[in-house]
Amino acid sequence: MQIAIVTDSTAYIPEEVRKRHGIHMIPLSVIFGDESYREEIDMTAESFWEEIKRQKELPTTSQPPVGEFVELFESLSKEYDAVISIHLSSGISGTYNGAVTAGQMVDGIKVYPYDSEISCMAQGFYAIEAAKMAKEGKKPEEIIARLDEIKKSMDAYFMVDDLSHLQRGGRLTGAQALIGNLLQLKPLLHFVDKVIVPYEKIRTRKKAIQRIYQLFDEAASKHPVRAAVIHANRPEDAKKMKEELESKYPNSEFIISYFGAVIGTHLGEGAMGLCWYKK
């Protein structure tokens, strides 16, 4: 059985990694005024952070139309018997539900939609693991079972550096953002029951990063993990974090990923994150 692996652009898997594993990607979009850009195709993370500085208003974001899913699945049906379609949490986007609907509309291929219940490179890890298993000839049910196993140990924490994005996006009032910035508050966020919720409010960026390290240590000190350092236009900070973690946890694996346009719209520049799961 030939199995295709699909994920959406918010997994932020570097293009060369997607190509290496044969992962297909369907994009979400960001809309500045009357202009719509498919992230990872029309707009890279780098160009997004440049554009956001030129705009007075934050962009809006949109999920892929069901028709694009149908078109993708139908094209895959020419080469594959099944597709596992892995998407960002259904609690923050309708993308997963779009895959479900499209899967019911196509013939000639069995579609297995999968709700990662998370986003960014944590979601990407599911897609990479699925792609490896597909190449090994595993059945769809075996792959889904492994993804469910990963989900039991998957964790992620994000630090918001610039509260103005949360404020402009309606997540905070102007007064809350102003006070937060004056006090140098850096909210830590994580996923609970498919949605992003506050975990802790911490004073200063340095202390917030140290708190993420503490949370990571609770898992990585017990067993080796696969982890990703995620950054919003802070590549040097991400590189430093990766090197620090690699030196302390030599039995774990670390990569660097990024917050692209869609997730970056909500978190803002300077955000940092760390996600991991048990190897």
Structural write-up:
With 279 residues, the protein is α/β, with parallel strands linked by helices. It has two domains: 3-28 and 63-152, Rossmann fold (3-Layer(aba) Sandwich), CATH 3.40.50.10170; 155-278, Hypothetical Protein Tm841, Chain: A,domain 3, CATH 3.30.1180. The chain is 42% helix and 27% strand. The protein contains eleven helices and 13 strands. The chain has helices at 15-21, 45-54, 66-76, 95-103, 120-135, 140-153, 164-168, 174-182, 205-220, 235-248, 261-267, and strands at residues 3-8, 23-26, 29-32, 35-38, 60-62, 82-87, 110-115, 155-159, 185-192, 195-203, 225-231, 253-258, 272-278. The strands form three sheets. Strands 10-9-8-13-11-12 form a six-stranded mixed β-sheet, with helices on both faces. Helix 3 packs across helix 4 and helix 5 (120-135) packs antiparallel against helix 6 (140-153). The protein is globular, with a radius of gyration of 19 Å. 43% of the residues are buried.
User: Any idea how many domains?
Assistant: 2
The largest sheet, given as strand count, sense and whether it forms a barrel, is:
6 strands, mixed
CATH architecture of the largest domain, by name, is 2-Layer Sandwich
Compute the number of helices: 11
Q: How many β strands by DSSP?
A: 13
Beta percentage is: 25-35%
CATH structural class of the largest domain: Alpha Beta
**Helical residues, percent:** 40-55%
Class from helix and strand fractions: alpha/beta
The low-confidence runs, each spanning 5 or more residues with pLDDT under 50, are 169-183
Order of helices and strands: EHEEEHEHEHEHHEHHEEHEHEHE
Mean pLDDT: 91
Distance from first to last alpha carbon: 26 Å
Adjacency order of strands in the biggest sheet: 10-9-8-13-11-12
What is CATH's topology name of the largest domain?
A: Hypothetical Protein Tm841, Chain: A,domain 3
**Rg, Cα atoms, Å:** 19 Å
**What sort of overall outline do the alpha carbons produce when their principal axes are compared?**
globular
Assembly type of the chains comes to: single chain
